[in-house]
Design goal:
253 residues; alpha/beta; Spore Coat Polysaccharide Biosynthesis Protein SpsA, Chain A; seven-stranded mixed sheet; 7 strands; 14% strand
Length: 253
């Protein structure tokens, strides 16, 4: 805990057997209370490796639900455990767990409620081996998004994110896509709800075991990102209404 706030790490996993252990071993358990592993019907022994490591909360999808569907299970389980701070960490070791302290303290000290690990601040992306076409696409999409969403983020496409429990309870992430565009929809919801977002410089690694999407899926993702940004803009100027920005229904009692 930090300042009596419960810290939970969520690991959205798909075929992460080879990298799960090294990722898990770098998690700072001096502040982390819970770890949740969600396996999206992997074809390897990710679940067995998680059990071997002693991960207490393992959610197993009987059918592959996709990257967004995996995250929904992650956050739902974290809220079920009454988590105050939730960090999404990819178990493919592409992002270093050593930034968890920095990300969590910003939230625990009520400075920000959302923190992103940015590969673009500094020179982490290209230095870490990000393919040049992905870097260029990242910069162009981010420019488009900042214009249409009136933000100043260095990137919207990082998979390293920390949220307060309050943020997760305030947005309708469960109605988002089950595909990769989920990440962008979630950030759009957060911005629309008025939460400010902090970014910290994050080194990244690209290697064979690190997850990555191919060019056709990247193109589909890019088109989806453009659609999210335009939807946000239209909703803001009241020329459209989109379900992802619908307020969360409060439960009675």
């Amino acid at each position: 805990m930090i300042n009596n706030k419960k810290v939970t790490i969520v690991l959205p996993a798909y075929n992460a057997e080879k990298t799960l252990e090294i990722t898990y071993n770098e998690i700072p358990f001096d502040i982390v209370d819970e770890v949740i592993l969600v396996d999206d019907k992997s074809n390897d022994k990710t679940v067995e490796k998680g059990k071997q490591l002693g991960i207490k909360h393992i959610v197993i999808h009987e059918q592959n639900k996709g990257y967004g569907g995996n995250q929904k299970s992650c956050y739902n389980k974290a809220l079920e455990l009454n988590s105050d701070i939730v960090v999404m960490l990819h178990p493919d070791y592409q992002y270093t767990p050593k930034l968890i302290h920095s990300m969590c303290y910003l939230i625990a000290n009520n400075v920000y409620e959302v923190v992103l690990g940015s590969r673009i601040l500094g020179k982490g992306a290209l230095k870490g081996g990000m393919p040049i076409y992905k870097y260029i696409a990242n910069r162009l999409l981010t420019l488009f998004q900042n214009i249409f969403m009136n933000q100043k983020l260095s990137e919207y496409h990082t998979g390293y994110r920390a949220f307060s429990g309050n943020v997760l309870r305030s947005i309708n992430y469960n109605i988002n896509s089950d595909d990769f565009v989920f990440d962008n929809q979630m950030l759009a919801q957060i911005c629309f709800a008025g939460f400010e977002i902090a970014e910290i410089t994050c080194p990244t690694k690209y290697f064979d075991e690190a997850s990555s999407i191919n060019i056709p899926r990247s193109a589909k993702y890019g088109i989806g990102v453009l659609g999210v940004s335009v939807s946000y803009f239209l909703q803001k100027i009241r020329l459209g209404r989109f379900k992802i920005f619908k307020p969360v229904e409060q439960k009675n009692g």
